[in-house]
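>> received
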Amino acid sequence: MPGTGAYLLIGAIAAVVTFAVTPIVGKVARRMGWVVEPDDRRVHIVATPDVGGIAMFVGFIVAFAASRLMDVFDPLYANFSEPRGVLVAATAIFLVGFIDDIREISAPAKVMGTIAAGAILVYYGVQMLYFRVPFLDVYVLSSDWAPLITVLWLLGMTNAINLIDGLDGLAAGIVAIGAGAFFLYSQHLADIPGMIVQPNIGSLVAILAVGICVGFLPHNFNPARIFMGDGGALLLGLLMAVSTSVVGGRADPFSPGPGGQTYFFLAPLFIPLFILGVPILDTLFAILRRAARRQGLASADKKHLHHRLMEMGHGQRRSVLILWTWTALLSAFVLYPVFTGSGVSYIPIGAAMLGLVLYTILHPQIRRRRA
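>> returned
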């Protein structure tokens, strides 16, 4: 299988192409009127293009094509239908998001489009094989259950990324950190003979997500000159769903793994839930909040985690950096035993988490505001 250097080259291609194309997309969007105006629900104050997902999709396609042309990636493409399935499904879900960005479609229509993308993945074989429930049992998914679990996983990931995309650079940064952590995890499993079903496209898809996010962030960080829109958010959600499902859902569930008991209880499918803890928790809170108010799940509000940080007195940039740091710490927390085989040195990570909590609630600016 390809080495880490080959994957990093593909990630760099995705980043460079996305970075170069984004200003062009911004100019076209302004000319076409593909901009989002400020309103009570949003935090930006000027009309801003919201079709940055086009640039991310172009970066994805170019880097994907580059990997196909490199001999080292031949094992991933030879007599293997899954890369084609990822390409077709990514195109389908991007188009759903792009149409919503420029003409706004209903929430049920977006859900049906996401389910259609999931069906494409299933058709091409991009689905889970195992499902471990922590502390309980391992389930080998039958042909009846595997498609349903795969589609539900995709729905969860796409909604999580879409909901967290509320501040400049927030979603792109969280996905870059989370996908980067999961790339390291998938490469680590690939180095252990018999640990993961090969060939496996998880590492490639994860590094593609990292690349397009890194290339997009310079244009998207506060003050953002362009937003990724639903086209970009749904694309990132699909890439994260694919990478986590084909790695976490295909790692040998009957092995204690490289992290001993911690690996046994958490891995392989629940590690991404920790790595992407910020958007997943935000999604769960949103579901509970709207259910309590008897609102539809698609109802918009300003009660997400990033909105609450801003209500406390943190500005956009500081709120984004706090949530980025949480993603990095959660990634370190769950991957430390995987790489070291030990769980005894969590003190530095725990101290960093405590420090971040204290910084969030006791920052001098927050204290002055309370006073």
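>> The radius of gyration is 20 Å.
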